[in-house]
Design a protein that fits this description.
4-stranded antiparallel beta sheet; about 40% strand; about 150 residues; 8 strands; mainly beta
Length: about 150
């Protein structure tokens, strides 16, 4: 009975959170060394949605999750909603790996979410710790940067 409850819990979590990576089967053939590609983000990062122009004091932001240790197969998927009525964005992103010593993220912006006439835009960002614009229009500028301003 307890095994069935545990199995149901694992399935429920997978459905709710998403199980995108399969665990390798145990055995010596899978005893490979962890590479940088398998590790989580190497740069501390923040996503900020500025209302109007970049640097506006009217903004929303969140820190991108990082592992306090180098953890193999670390996954980051987060979301931020921000904006004024009829101009609210849903911004979602997930960490997908590394390339050329940069963290790679897939970003998706749905705007304006509080109307029937929304659009969705996608952007792949290669983050090296310096500020990068993810999306920009007349209503918002969405950036990724170092939370400490380095």
């Amino acid at each position: 009975m307890m095994r069935k409850i545990c199995a149901l819990l694992v399935i429920t979590v997978c459905i709710a959170v998403g199980c995108r990576k399969e665990l390798p089967a145990p055995g010596p053939s899978n005893a490979t060394k962890t590479t940088q590609e398998d590790l989580g983000p190497q740069y501390a990062a923040r996503v900020t949605c500025f209302i109007g122009e970049i640097g506006s004091r009217s903004n929303c932001s969140t820190i991108i999750a990082q592992s306090s240790q180098k953890v193999a197969n670390f996954e980051v998927t987060q979301k931020l909603s921000c904006g004024h009525p009829d101009r609210v964005s849903d911004i979602e992103w997930n960490f997908i790996g590394h390339k050329d010593n940069r963290d790679l993220y897939n970003f998706k912006r749905t705007f304006p979410i509080d109307t029937n006439e929304y659009t969705t835009a996608l952007n792949l960002i290669s983050f090296d710790g310096n500020q990068a614009i993810i999306f920009q229009d007349e209503y918002q500028v969405i950036v990724i940067d170092d939370p400490d301003g380095k």
